[in-house]
UniProtKB/TrEMBL annotation:
<keyword id="KW-0812">Transmembrane</keyword>
<keyword id="KW-1133">Transmembrane helix</keyword>
<feature type="transmembrane region" description="Helical">
    <location>
        <begin position="82"/>
        <end position="102"/>
    </location>
</feature>
<dbReference type="InterPro" id="IPR050194">
    <property type="entry name" value="Glycosyltransferase_grp1"/>
</dbReference>
<dbReference type="Pfam" id="PF00534">
    <property type="entry name" value="Glycos_transf_1"/>
</dbReference>
<dbReference type="InterPro" id="IPR001296">
    <property type="entry name" value="Glyco_trans_1"/>
</dbReference>
<keyword id="KW-0472">Membrane</keyword>
<protein>
    <recommendedName>
        <fullName>Glycosyl transferase family 1 domain-containing protein</fullName>
    </recommendedName>
</protein>
<dbReference type="GO" id="GO:0016757">
    <property type="term" value="F:glycosyltransferase activity"/>
</dbReference>
<feature type="domain" description="Glycosyl transferase family 1">
    <location>
        <begin position="170"/>
        <end position="324"/>
    </location>
</feature>
Amino acid sequence: MKKIVYILPEYRDDIGTHFYHNRELLECAQDKLDIFLIVEKGERPANIKNVYVQKFRFLPLRIFELKLVLFALRMRGYKTFWTHYSFVGSILASFFGKSFYWNCGMPWLYRRGVVEEYFFRLALQRSNLVTGTEGMKKEYVERYHLKPERVHVLPNWINLERFNSWRGRKREAREQLGIPHDAKVVFFLHRLSKRKGADLIGPVAKAFADNTKVLFLVAGSGPLASSISGPNIKLVGEVAQRDVPMYFAAADVFFMPSEEEGFPHVVLEAMAMGVPIVAADVGGVREIVPDALGDFITRQDSTIFIQKIKILLSDTKMAQMLAAKELEWVKKYSLDIVFADRFIPMLRV
């Protein structure tokens, strides 16, 4: 059985980020791989057999601690290392065996400190980079002068079983969330930052203020949380990923106005629940949705977002058609398929 060390920056059972999906992948992988999980911050996942949660918080001590753990695992025969986003973990892992480094965003859009940028680029150079789409691979190769053969594509995945359990339960979801049964719900789920387009929620919601049936359900936390308000906005704070399917069950439209994305798990979540999407055309978003959604993946513009949301809220047949397309399309990203057809073969590269 192949041995692999998997480094995850953070985990809690009630975590609101996509790291919950990583735990589901590792659970799926345990029967086929000898996995040892290192959690840099947080708590031990209940259903993962071999786990080490780092104890130190002071960065120099944490780096030294991680180095010792990686050395001990190398002595136990682990030669393949997979690091999710943590470039420090990726750099250290590269000294002990074959290193895969997952990164899927648009980091070139934002300035880093000189030291942070240096170590990020070092991680890219020392490891096999794994990103989410062919388009994202091309961007990383060109912008960071990477060898194409050392950059690999692995799509994100989704546990369809977990989401299927809430399909068709809109009334129940709305009762639990205190949302009227006859409301038209536009759902936003992301970090409340400009980077994720949260600054556009207010202006877009304001365009629907005269329609008392339209409600913007906003889930997330971040620097813009205190500035998002309005008579038709329901702000619920950060939602644990395990509860996310219920929120999508309550929604009519998913709204993602980000200025930066890679391969957003939230798009897979919306499609898994058959919720039509209005999203900004950034990163790999257009590559991961069915062609039928093309008109609703647009440039980051409030006026266009408003028009597209109005279409989906008023045209029931259109919304139903897109929902059906999404439900069929998302099957290719199911956890078991991505694990068997993409993740396992990549480890043999």
